[in-house]
Amino acid sequence: MLFLSNFNGTWDQYIDAFADGIPTGLDFLWYTSTKYPHSIPIAAFKDYIAANQIQTNYYYNATPGAAQRDIVQALQLRDALVALAADHAVADPAAFAAKYNQMLADRQKAFGAHGIAPSASPATERAEAARRRYFDRRQWLPGASPPDQSPQQAIG
Fold first, then answer.
1. Staple 91 to which of 70, 96, 140, 142, CB 3.0 to 4.6 Å?
2. Displacement of CA 98 from its chain's centroid (Å)
3. Nearest alpha-carbon partner for 8 in 55, 73, 50, 70
4. What is this structure's pTM?
């Protein structure tokens, strides 16, 4: 079986999320695989995955710091704004103001700032330190420290 995936966290967080969330589903998918140990206990499962995984040399992320739900909300907000712009062309000021206020109320959750989640483990911190050498987060995360500076250095 070939299983392809990506996750916005560390490898350990990813495997833990699957094993905690759908252990029976994992066992159902892999039960015929050679030497599959089952998803619980987690240590044997992680060893099995590590022994069978294929590392890639390339990873592309078009929306760094944004989870799938952030992208969906942004697309819904865009659609609402396009509809609002069309209403602006034909509505009187009072009707437009009412539609604008309703759009704001309906789409409040889409106005939040996305970004890197709090560090959940030392592996997450190491991964972030490695990314920091290559990416200037200030381009997509307002108020972020420069790439050569850790968040702790920026605060102190």
1. 96
2. 34
3. 70
4. 0.46
CA nearest to 70, candidates 137, 21, 115, 18: 115
**Residue 156, pLDDT above cutoff 60:** no
CB 65 within 8 A of CB 140: yes
Q: What's the per-residue H, E or C state across 77-127?
A: HHHHHHHHHHHHHHCCHHHHHHHHHHHHHHCHHHHCCCCCCCCCCHHHHHH
Q: What confidence score (pLDDT) does residue 112 get?
A: 64
CB 144: neighbour CB atoms within 10 A? 19
Which residue bears the tokens 């967080």?
13
In our burial notation (b when 16+ CB lie closer than 10 A, e otherwise), range 41-52 reads eeeebbebbeee
Query: Which residue in the block uniquely carries the two structure tokens 């390339």?
Result: 58
Reduced to 3 states, what is the DSSP secondary structure of residue 71?
helix
Residues 6 or more apart whose CB falls under 8 angstroms from that of 46 comprise 12, 15
**What value does the CA radius of gyration of the chain take, rounded to a whole number of Å?**
22
